[in-house]
Amino acid sequence: MIEDWIAWFPELLDGLQISLTVALASIVLGLVLGTLVALASVSGHRPVRWLSVALVEVLRGVPALVLIYLVYFGLPGVGLTLEAWTAAVLAIGVNTAAYMGEIIRAGLLHLPPGQSEAAQSLGLTRLQELRAVVLPQALRTVFPSLVSYSVIVFQATSLCYLIGVRELLSVGFSIGSVTFEYLSVLTLVGLIYVVVSIAGSRLAHAVEARSKQKTSIPRS
């Protein structure tokens, strides 16, 4: 079995690279859209808040696989055909935005009121305040949670196999269809997911520990 794993590993690494690429692109898209949703959810305009809350609830209620199918198979019905990789990133990114938006929203709500008052006393506009004071501090606060959720996004890339993206799981099935060693190859695929996921989780814990260390008050 070990000999087989060694032989399959280079091809599986190619699939892992695609999985990581899809995950990274989805995380970036989700972070950008999630930040906008979070800002809308704390807006002073009630209709904007309601709309953002409704959008988040809908997106969180729809499974990621349904979104992937909707984008890849549904959009061609209205004249918009996307490559499998692009459709996967768009669907997972939109799904990610709903969850990251809630994480960022929690960070915004937990900022001390004095931060905003200090920015206003310096004559900063609302946009300058958000860009220079509010968002950086909120993102710094919730960064460990964002990293933790990024592990879930990476695991969700396995769904892309169902629309033909040649990611890690897809490569594993391809090897299995040739060798009929499904148990062995899928065990190796699972171990690769475990290793990457644990590494991501450890990174999140390390970032959180370092963040707490920086914000702790030194004792005299």
From TrEMBL:
One of its GO terms (cellular component) is ATP-binding cassette (ABC) transporter complex. One of its GO terms (biological process) is amino acid transport. It is found in: Cell membrane. It comes from Aeromicrobium tamlense. Keywords: Amino-acid transport, Cell membrane, Membrane, Transmembrane, Transmembrane helix, Transport. PROSITE patterns: ABC_TM1 (PS50928). CDD domains: TM_PBP2. It is a multi-pass membrane protein. This is Amino acid ABC transporter permease. The chain crosses the membrane at residues 18-39, 51-72, 84-101, 146-164, 184-204. Belongs to the binding-protein-dependent transport system permease family. SUPFAM superfamilies: MetI-like (SSF161098). GO terms for molecular function: transmembrane transporter activity. Residues 16-204 form the ABC transmembrane type-1 domain.
